[in-house]
Predict the 3D structure of the following.
Amino acid sequence: MLDPIQSEANQIIKQLETDLEKGNLDQTKYLGKRGLFRKLAQKIKDVPPEKRQQAGKLINQVKKTLETKVRQHLKTPSIPTNSIDLTTPGEKPKVGHLHPISQAIEEISRIFERIGFIRVRYPEVDWDWYVFESLNMPPNHPARDEWETFFVDRPDTTGEIEYDERDPRKRHPSLIGGGKLVLTTHTSNSQVREMERLKKPPIRMINIARCYRRQQDATHTQMFHQFEGLVIDKNITIQDLKGTLNYFAKKFYGPEVKSRIRPFHFRFTEPSFEVDFSCHICGGTGKVNGKKCKLCKSGWHEVGGAGMVHPNVLKAGGIDPDKYTGFAFGWGVERTYTLKPGLNIDDIRQFYGNKVEFLKQF
Ligand code: FA5
């Protein structure tokens, strides 16, 4: 009972082989909806029930043979190279996407641009003066130790000029042929650069850039990103800072998330704060159904620093601290991003491991 099917199958395979030899491949003729294989498969209904299983196997085998022959032919086509087989099934091109940190940077920029911040870029290898001295950190000041700095191997041209807190501009890089050169340890190097660029407030800057520190563990990488906000104008107060933090928290994490500031110390802001955002899982309570929240320690996540711009920094940027005040903040992009609802990334080094399987998920 299977013989007619077998012999028809042999014929179809032979016919395909002849077509392939001639370079006449038409897949639809064999494997299409109304193709020869489909017609053969339909014959199974005429086979008595006790032989159907065997017939099914035979039909499957024929299909595999036809497909394999077509596939092999397409890999090493004997058809002339200038002809195109329009029946060949298309291959979906792989579409890439931006790196998750680039996506985060785009999102952060858009959020701040909506309230009038201007995105700027400044050098990521910069003079010590912009990274430390102009930020009220004299040479050899112990506060510098917190920034585990990579220095560029270059002669120090600072010379004999003493650091003068009342007039830090005496040691401005343009006057001393540069000075020491460092990889930027934070985006705060942009503060005085932006004051110099605009010369006069109002200033509303957002600077997002790479930073470098000699650190490496699950929450620190040697290269990471920060975003720095700086607002300077008449009558800017801590209220403005708090309003901006809350605005960002709600836009980036969701409407139920709040910010809080805790007293801290930075040389370039006075007063200074650490900034936390409430945990989106436990809503800032630290508990879920009476149990300790697994995502946060105490209901809050720390993301970075902030404060009111120190008068010495305004002076270094040529702005009169008796007329103007301002606030600044600086946070890690990686850290801020990993706290987004739905992401559960416990090691930020994964962002830079170049594993496509990891990156594909974003
Ligand atoms: C600063 O860098 C200050 N410049 C922030 C600031 C700006 C304060 C303006 C006041 C006014 P801090 O060293 O704490 O502060 O770093 C801020 C954030 O950067 C950290 O909370 C963390 O999120 C991120 N960060 C710091 N070092 C690393 C690192 N090695 N890897 C990844 N993220 C880091």
Summary: The longest strand covers residues 223-233. The radius of gyration is 33 Å.
